Amino acid sequence: MPELPEVETVRRMLIDTVVPKEIVKVEVYYEKIVDGDAADFAKRLTGQSFESIDRKGKFLIFILSQDAFISHLRMEGKYELVDAAFPRDKHEHLSFFLEDGTRLRYLDVRKFGRVKLVDKQDYLKEPSLMKLGPEPWDITSDYFYQRIHRSEKPIKSLLLDQSVIAGLGNIYANEVCFRVGLSPKTPGKKLSKKKAEEILEASKTILTEAIRYKGTTIHTFSSNGESGGYQDHLLVHGQKNCPTCGRELTKEAVGGRGTYYCKNCQK
């Protein structure tokens, strides 16, 4: 968390709030947030303007007038636009002061998030982005089946593998497995082509729904201070009883991740 719907929500917010504003000053308060030289990062970006915001998987790509930088929010990173004079938050580690007297600030309670200066023309060749598989909308069911049908790993783990399919995280993988009536512990090699197609279609549907509700807020996610709404539509993640049969849901670790499912409905 944040997963693809949350990152897409942030991307849209940033387009609405910072493009095409000029950066007049950059302050880095926690240097480890920057992958590379923090002073160079601040100096290079000063005087540039935001042209657009791209996204690949769970990564944001800020396209500037001359350079670009990628941003991974990890578990609790968030961006907020405030007045430049607004008091600095103790979890504010990076700030972009803008020409109109506002400040785009990056907050991160756990300090796991990272930003990195990259080549504006060639950023998709950045190793962290090249490792990503395609997003659900960009692949066929045949491709997806070929990636999973020889694997001993449980389907839940395969859905979380960003090199197989990009964007799904723990919450949405739980929802996908429930939507297709499949135990999250089922090995990939046990799945038919038809079931692989159902999984892919459910992934598209659920991610699209979550984007429409501006993501899921379980603990701390927000976009410019606004919480998401998809948590009110989750069928199994964080729930007590199965919405189909009414039986108590099982929660256990699958591939090291907390997993909610119905033993009765998900065979």
Description of the structure:
- The mean pLDDT is 95.
- The chain contains seven helices and ten strands.
- 26% of the residues lie in helices and 22% in strands.
- It is elongated.
- The protein is of the alpha+beta class.
- Helix 1 packs parallel to helix 7, helix 4 (141-148) packs across helix 7 and helix 6 crosses helix 7 (193-212).
- Strand 6 and strand 7 form a beta hairpin.
- The strands form three sheets. It has a four-stranded antiparallel sheet with strand order 1-6-7-5, with helices on one face. The protein has a four-stranded antiparallel sheet with strand order 2-3-4-8, covered by helices on one side.
- The two termini are 27 Å apart.
